[in-house]
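So, can you check what follows?
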Amino acid sequence: MALSSARKAAMAAVAVAALGGVSFFGASASEAAPGPAVHAAPAPAPASASAVAERSVSAHRQAPQVVTRVIGKGRVDGHRWSVALEFHRSLPKGYTLPTLPDGASAPGTSLLCQRMYIGGVRIDHQGGPWSDCQPVTGTNDPAPAGEMGLWGLHDKGLEGSRLMIANPEPDVAYGVITLTNGHRVKAETVTVPGTTYRAWAAPIPDGQTIAAVDQYDSRHHQLTHDTNWR
């Protein structure tokens, strides 16, 4: 039978006393100051499987239900702009899954929202609190990847100050927007912690036209080249 930690410690103490020259802490008997006998404390019992499981459940319960990550911010045409991704682990109260053409509800157990502001005004706020949100399944749904769009407060993002926002594939490290006046804007990809949801965002000044949108990996290899924006 294997010896318990407490029994092993007691046997070690007996062996030390028999040797007569070495204390429990490794100093010689002549170096140790006189005092009461030192007794080894019993080692703590290993955590049971149920205790480990309980701690795991507790950690899961403490995970934030809503995680928000700022993707980009700055100023454009004298106005502050910002873009953030907002991930809800469960469908929030008041949100209803959209209906598919066949009448069934769209799949999804979580919600991913793209919050966009120009001059303190949230883009598409007229659509209610869940406009620019889409249902996703958990933290690793690949559905949003590959999306890109222009957003603004006027004429559906075709006029005025606008924001170019991409939800790129995993290998995209940053995007570069080239305007027809030669100006280039670079935006790094940012990921929501604990998820695979990512985006990059850049401002387009009023009156400017997009010549090309390119995306690159971390080694600066060009992955996409798009000239269909304006």
